[in-house]
Amino acid sequence: MRVLGGLTGGSGLDNPSWVVVLLRQPWVMPFVRICLVSAYLIGGVTKLLHFDAAAAEQVRFGLHPGWLWAAIAIFVELAGSLCIICNRFTWLGAGGLAALTLVAMLVANNFWRLEGAAQFIALNSFFEHLGLIAAFVMVTWMASGERCSSE
Question: Helix axis angle, 90-108 relative to 66-86, nearest 10°?
Fold first, then answer.
């Protein structure tokens, strides 16, 4: 049985009724979309307000010219977040944020080049970023209204 485009699950085990009731609340999904992109919104605004520091950060990670990479990051963080929050062109916003996140995880969380505590921290951050990319895939899938045949 499918309710709300898959909210009850596909394995034969339905979600508890209180979960279904909660997920049906009109404020839940907009709130969840805001939560998903909150770090990107804050990051984009902070970079915009402190552009020189944002450009210097890009250079520190080996991305040249720093001003260009900072401008791209700001645009993607803000525009991509708005796409997801507004649930319009979600695929584009989520794709942009996923690509930005992939670049960040490869240049800023290169745990394979580190040792000790620094490696541990970078490894955790790397996989947190991977989880965010997966969440962007999921939000795109949910926004599409389509469901995979493997469900």
Answer: 140
Six token digits for residue 38: 């909150």
The residue type found at 112 is W
What is the per-residue pLDDT across 126-139, written as a single tens digit (0 to 9) for each? 999 999 999 999 99
Q: Output DSSP code: residue 14.
A: P
**Contact (Cβ atoms closer than 8 angstroms) between residue 58 and residue 66:** yes
pTM of the model: 0.85
Residue 60, burial from CB neighbour count under 10 angstroms (0-12, 13-18, 19+) = exposed
Scan for tokens 């062109």, then name that residue: 89
**In this structure, is residue 93 part of a structural domain?**
yes
Q: Is residue 11 part of a domain?
A: no
| 9 occurs within a structural domain | no
